Amino acid sequence: MTADPLVYIIIVNYGRASDTIECLVSLGALTGPAFRVVLVDNGSPSDSAREIADFLGCAADRRSGWKQVSHGCGYSLRFIPSPENLGFAGGCNIGMREALADPAATHVWLLNNDTLVEPDSLAALLRRCQPAVHRTEVPVSMCGSTLIYYKPKDVLQGCGGRFDISRGRGRPIAALNPREHLPEQAEVERDMDYVIGASMLVSIDLIRQVGLMDERYFLYFEELDWALRARAQGFRLGWAPDSWVVHKEGAAIGTSMRARPSAMATYFMTAGYLRLVWALRRRTLPAALAISAMRAANFMLQRDLELAGAVFQAITAFVRSPTAYVPGSFRGVGTAHQGKI
C-alpha cells in the first residue's frame, strides 16, 4: 500500500434518502486516510434523488462536480444519478469507474447506504490491508468489517460469509453473537468464502486485474462471485475485527435473518444462485435446479404460494436465459425495482 492512500467510498441509493443522508453524515466522523465519496442514485422511482440533491445542494437529474460536504471532518462528494436501475452491481460499478479514472486512487470502499460507520472503521480496514510482514504472505486485497445490527446494536450481523455452493446455502460468520464475543481473526479468514458487501474495501489493483462486479446478477451473489474470481487469481480475503459498521440490514426488501423474506428477495436469491452455479460449477447445475425446486415445494407445503411462485419464476427465467437473466422477469418487479440497498 502506498504511503498516502486515497479511498473512494461508493454508496448506492435506491429510494431510501433518509438512510443515505444518515450514512453521509456518519462519514463526517471518519478519522485517518483521505477519502472521496461517489454517491449513485440507482434510478429511484420516488423523490429520493431530489431529497438527497437538496441535502447536497446540487441538481437531482445530472452528474455533479466534486462538492464539499461540511459535516464533521468535511469531504468531497460527487453525486451521479442513473436514469435506470442497474442493480446493486451496476450501481457500484458506476462509482468504481470514477475511482479507476483517478490515478491517485488506491482502494474503493463499497458501503451500503443503510449503514453507519464508526470513526476508525476505514482506518482499520486499511491497516488490515497493509503489506504482510513476511514477504511470502499475500497481502489482503478484499477486506470486510465487523457488521452489527442497528437494533440491537450489541449483536453481530457477521464478520464474513461462508457458502456451500453444492447445497445453495450460505451464512454469515458469527451471526447473532454478542458484540463482545468476536471470533479469532485467523479462524474467520480461514473459513470465509466472501466479504459481506455491506462494507467491503477492495484494492484498485484487484479491480484492474479481476474486473468489476458482474452486473448479470442484478441483486445478490455479486460479492460472492467477485470474491471467488479474485481468489482464483491469487488475491486474498481478509477481515478487520476493529472496523465496526452498523447495518440496518436490507429492510427495504425483507432480507432480515429473523423475518420471512419478501417475494422479491426470494426471486433474486434463487436466480443469483443458479447464475453462480452456471458460471462457476456448471456440472452441478442439475442438482442446483433440483434444490431450487425443492425450496419451492417446501413453500407450497407451508401454503406460502407467493414465495413458491417467486422461486418458480426465477427458475423459469434462468432456464430461458442462463447467461443473462432479466430482472423484469419477476412479475410485479420491473427494472426500476431493487432493494439490496
UniProtKB/TrEMBL annotation:
Which InterPro entries does its entry note?
Glyco_trans_2-like (IPR001173), Nucleotide-diphossugar_trans (IPR029044)
Q: Which GO terms describe its molecular function?
A: glycosyltransferase activity
Q: Which domain of life is it from?
A: Bacteria
Q: Where is the Glycosyltransferase 2-like domain?
A: 9-128
Keyword annotations? Glycosyltransferase, Transferase
Q: Which organism is it from?
A: Novosphingobium sediminicola
Family note: Belongs to the glycosyltransferase 2 family.
Lineage of the species this protein comes from: Bacteria, Pseudomonadati, Pseudomonadota, Alphaproteobacteria, Sphingomonadales
Give the protein name, as stated in the record.
Glycosyltransferase 2-like domain-containing protein
